From TrEMBL:
The protein, known as: Cell adhesion molecule 4
Keyword set includes Transmembrane helix: yes
GO biological process: homophilic cell adhesion via plasma membrane adhesion molecules; regulation of Rac protein signal transduction; regulation of wound healing
Residue ranges of the region described as Disordered: 304-345
Pfam family for this entry, one: V-set
Lineage: Eukaryota, Metazoa, Chordata, Craniata, Vertebrata
Basic and acidic residues composition-biased segments: 310-329
Domain Ig-like: residue ranges: 208-291
Organism for this UniProt entry: Bagarius yarrelli
Length: 433
């Protein structure tokens, strides 16, 4: 009896244990839990913070920000921040959104489930801040012929700190590089394939250049003259100076900006005019030689000779301009009392007897050169043949020929010098007339 009772009691205790264990398993399987997901968002974007529920039975769900301020209590707003919105509340998922995210919103957001024992999970919000637009820093000003150093600096916020990244380049610069376009680019994962770009134009300093724009045609008494001085430079010269070499500007001369204006010209206006400009990197000047012709002299030409006369004045103008640097403003150029002498009327010009003399001199020089070559060749042949007597004879003949050629050369040079002196005397005589 006792053995049978013991076996029955043992079977009953096993059954109780099995029932208790099954009850515990069912309770554990029905236990509530909460899960949270980390979120990464761009600054200024919208973050979606989610809390996933398991076996939710209607318990209280609370969402708090990193400062442990309650945002929502079972779907009801608790904090008056309109950037936070409850977009979903179901037995399985609770989701809120945060718009216009800033760096100050970073941190852990708490998903709390209040049951017999409080369960909570933290969703970490990370804010990615794109870099700012780069800045270009110039170490020293760029000067023509030198080197410029440029530094591209980009700043970015990371974990509440400002981080800067820079890149430096050095470039040789010339005048032509002024205004050249450069760009500094910054890339970052937060830009999603785009770039921050800063455009920069080189500012190259250089000395000025000056150029006077001359008028067209011949200037006669009574005409007006306007000279414009074109100036370049960086920085552009502020002051432009007009002057006349070895003289003052005429009384009726007017300066308007970069232009010199003279009305009712006369031969007293003749001279060389200068335009000068300067900046911190140098100075420059340009000159113009003014030649004013007598209107009465121009009127002496008949209508039939007008075309030929104009060509003659143009030739005189070119010759006088080439000598303009030696003339002063007080020297009258081209008056009516001096007749124009054409070079074609002189007998010793290329149209006269000078060309045959030059041709003769050229022929003599060529003959002399050929004789020297023949002498050298013969000398080599005689040396090879070892004929001493013939060598002496040939040397004697060659010396005689050389003496004759030199005498003829000196005679021709004497004739040329005599003709040159006669030419100068003729020009002096013509100018006295």
């Amino acid at each position: 009896m006792r053995a049978g009772q013991r076996s029955r009691l043992h079977s009953r205790s096993l059954a109780v244990l099995l029932v208790q264990s099954s009850i515990l398993l069912s309770l554990c399987s029905r236990g509530q839990a909460v899960q949270a997901e980390n979120v990464t968002v761009l600054e200024g974007g919208t973050a979606h913070i989610s809390c996933r529920l398991q076996n939710y039975d209607g318990s209280i769900v609370v969402i708090q920000n990193p400062r442990r301020q309650t945002l929502f209590f079972n779907g009801t707003r608790a904090l008056k921040d309109e950037r936070f919105q409850m977009v979903l509340f179901t037995p399985r998922l609770v989701r809120i959104t945060l718009s216009n995210v800033s760096v100050s919103d970073e941190g852990g957001y708490f998903c709390q489930l209040y049951t017999d024992s409080t369960h909570h999970q933290v969703a970490t919000l990370s804010v990615v801040v794109p870099p700012e637009v780069p800045n270009v820093v110039v170490k020293s000003e760029a000067v023509e012929g030198g080197e410029v150093e440029l530094t591209c600096v980009v700043s970015q916020q990371e974990n509440g700190k400002t981080v800067s990244v820079s890149n430096t380049i050095r470039l040789p610069v010339e005048r032509k590089d002024n205004g050249a376009a450069l760009s500094c680019e910054a890339s970052h994962p937060a830009l999603v394939g785009q770039k921050r770009v800063r455009h920069y134009r080189l500012d190259v300093h250089f000395a000025p250049t000056v150029r006077i724009s001359p008028p067209q045609g011949i200037l006669r008494e009574g005409d007006s003259l306007s000279l414009t001085c074109s100036v370049t430079g960086n920085p552009l010269p502020r002051d432009i100076l007009w002057s006349r070499v070895n003289d003052t500007l005429p009384e009726r001369a007017e300066i308007s900006g970069t232009t010199l204006v003279m009305s009712r010209l006369s031969q007293t206006h003749n001279g060389t005019y200068l335009c000068q400009a300067h900046n911190n990197y140098g100075r420059a000047a340009d000159q113009y030689t003014l030649l004013v012709y007598d209107r009465q002299r121009c009127g002496l030409l008949s209508e039939d000779e007008e075309g030929e006369g104009k060509e003659e004045y143009v030739e005189e103008d070119k010759v006088n301009k080439s000598k303009g640097e030696k003339q002063t403003g007080k020297e009258p150029i081209g008056t009516t009392s001096h007749p124009v002498i054409s070079s074609s009327s002189l007998p010793w010009t290329p149209q006269g007897n000078l060309t045959p003399l030059i041709l003769m001199l050229f022929i003599l020089l060529c003959t002399l050169t050929l004789l020297i070559l023949l002498f050298t060749l013969t000398l080599l042949i005689l040396i090879l043949l070892h004929t001493l007597m013939l060598l002496i004879l040939l040397l004697t003949l060659t010396l005689l020929i050389l003496i004759l050629l030199l005498a003829l050369t000196f005679l021709i040079l004497f004739l040329l010098l005599t003709l040159t002196l006669l030419t100068l005397l003729q020009r002096v005589w013509s100018s006295d007339l």
